[in-house]
Amino acid sequence: MADKVVFDKPKVELHVHLDGAIRVQTILDVAKRRGIELPAGTVEDMTNIIALKEPVTLTEFLKKFPLYIHVVAGDREAIKRMAYEFVEDKAKEGVIYVEVRYSPHLLANTGVEKIQWNQKEGDVSPDDVVRLVNEGLREGERAFKTKARSILCCMRHMPSWSMGVVELCERYRDEGVVGIDLAGDESLSCEAFPEHRKAYEEAKRLGIHRTVHAGEVGPPHMVREAVEVLKAERIGHGYRTLEDPALYKELLAKKMHFEVCPISSKLTGACNPDFTKHPVKTLMRDKANYSLNTDDPLILNSTLNCEYSVAHDEMGFTEEEFKRLNICAAQSCFLPDKEKEELVNSLRTAYGMIQSSGF
């Protein structure tokens, strides 16, 4: 997609997956170093294989990850490199604060059910993955002046991982990890897998911030489950909330934050492919609390600038709305209060708005 800039002011991004934001050149470089054969040998050809061009189902979308994730999983150098490069890429997009999420278990190669990447190269545990990502993000932050923090993902289909994810959030909360997420197939509810509910109860008890993928392709009651059972502070996607007017009104009143990803929602079949009918237009009209995000820019072949271009050109977003939604993102981020206030005020200053002592 064309990387046109329609909003050249500082931005905040809250919903982007590290394993869906790797540079294709990095995949090629690591594959060559490790002797892993890929279906193509150039950036252009691999991009054509990985990236979506037309809307598909979420299931088809998820089939893109196995095309390349085995190249970097379990490789210390690759994990740290992709975190560092991620910050550089976000800095180029004008992002001054980003929360990037990933599953430590899916990037590891040991002690993980059904994950047996490249065992011969030595053990890389989920704990190792978090340390390596933290190091890459810190080095990127120093080099590119974009603040980067991370959110660790539980996976709906692997409930046995969830309590371990909470433990990692607690262990690394002072080293860059700011929250927990639940991602994956929304047909797998917490009624069927109570381990997720227990993990989120423990996260709340420990004061760990919580977001949940819900209402992307699943029904509105999955959003209600995220809010009422898992005590989510933010909702990843949440488009189907609008199908339940009472729930939508309730979450509007609570100023629940929706992490919206327009291009993703089109290409995964989560929303009507006609952007003029996208649910985010309703959020804009109602002055809801939401943000614009890239989700998986590698697979979507997009950038944050692409998201803003779509919002501007096809949905009628104005510069004032871009400013407002970025303030909303900053106010809803998972930073400690003092850092959050500094972030909000830095945006207000950059936007020529009157600073507030509170946030």
Automatic annotation (TrEMBL):
Enzyme category, top tier: hydrolase
Enzyme nomenclature, EC number: 3.5.4.4
Locations listed in the record: Cell membrane; Cytoplasmic vesicle lumen
Transmembrane segments: none
GO molecular function, one term: metal ion binding
Necessary cofactors: Zn(2+)
A Pfam cross-reference name: A_deaminase
InterPro entries tied to this protein: A/AMP_deam_AS, A_deaminase_dom, Ado/ade_deaminase, Metal_Hydrolase
Protein name: Adenosine deaminase
Classification lineage: Eukaryota, Metazoa, Chordata, Craniata, Vertebrata
